[in-house]
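[recover] target loaded
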């Protein structure tokens, strides 16, 4: 039978080296390279798999959410590290790229491969 506690998600990137630098260096996550793929430890039992794909097309949906206590603080810290936050009209984000409205505060950004990620305030 399957064991859901060991399940993991994954998505493609166009350049493993750039992805490793971003996820390890910029985001500060534990990244290991094995079998031509990246494994990112999100928690003790949760991992993310990033695999190279020559014809990679960036995810147009939010592929990964990072829960944080304070979205504004997370945005400020990541901005200092060079992360650029998306500006949307729907839903309308503020000057920092934070959506403050119905639901939790959230801000979207992209990894070097163009995949959409987000920091979302814990509620």
């Amino acid at each position: 039978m399957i064991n859901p506690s060991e399940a993991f998600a994954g998505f493609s990137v166009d350049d493993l080296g750039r992805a490793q630098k971003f996820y390890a260096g910029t985001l500060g996550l534990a990244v290991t390279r094995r079998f031509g793929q990246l494994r990112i430890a999100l928690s003790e039992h949760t991992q993310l798999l990033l695999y190279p794909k020559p014809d990679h097309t960036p995810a147009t949906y939010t592929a990964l959410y990072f829960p944080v206590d304070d979205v504004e603080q997370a945005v400020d810290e990541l901005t200092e590290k060079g992360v650029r936050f998306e500006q949307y009209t729907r839903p309308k984000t503020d000057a920092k790229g934070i959506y403050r409205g119905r639901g939790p505060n959230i801000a979207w950004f992209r990894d070097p491969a163009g995949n959409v990620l987000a920091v979302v305030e814990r509620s």
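[recover] notes: The mean pLDDT is 95.
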